[in-house]
Amino acid sequence: MAIRTILTEPNKLLRNISKPVDQVSKEDQKLMDDMLETMYHANGIGLAAIQIGVPKRIIVMDISKEEGKKDPRYFVNPVIKNKDLLKNTYEEGCLSVPNQFAEIERPSKCDVEYLDYFGKKKILKAEGLLATCIQHEMDHLEGILFIDYLSKLKKSLIIKKLSKLKSNTAIL
Ligand code: ZN
Predict the structure, then answer these.
(1) Nearest to 51 by CA among 40, 38, 63
(2) How sure is the predictor about 172, in pLDDT bands with cuts at 50, 70 and 90?
(3) H or E segment and range at residue 110
(4) SS3 of 75-102
(5) How far apart are CA 169 and CA 154, in angstroms?
(6) What is the pLDDT of residue 166?
(7) Residue 136 CA to ligand 1 centre (angstroms)
(8) Residue list, CB under 5 A from ion ligand 1
(9) What CATH number belongs to 12-171?
């Protein structure tokens, strides 16, 4: 396993639409292992492959709160089958939009069809934080970031801040 570099906004790669995986290969499993390690290292609860520059429809998540208890989840080619009309609001952040948070409204429940780590077809009935997280990660597969839901002004302020931060950072 290896820790990969997480791309941050502004970065055009993050706007790519990710491609479906034909069959879950050893290479894809290695990618998922790296993604999970990268996510844990960055203290995130979800990561899409495009966030480390790989345009594949692959997501890893772990929303377990208990210290020391890991509950990794892997989603390949996830598709939302049902969305609840009821909405839920969470304060969201994103490893690709560092240190920025905003309240985002999304359907409170959804059913997701996907392939697991071993390529087996599964269905997840998600609600609460799990539903929000999977929808946030699935947005990444379409090149969408949570700041896209904010007003133009708020979004441009955030991007300005992040650009400034980037130009002041020397990565040695
Ligand atoms: Zn994100």
Answers:
(1) 38
(2) low
(3) strand 109-115
(4) EEEEEEEEECCCEEEEEEEECCEEEEEE
(5) 23
(6) 80
(7) 6
(8) 94
(9) 3.90.45.10
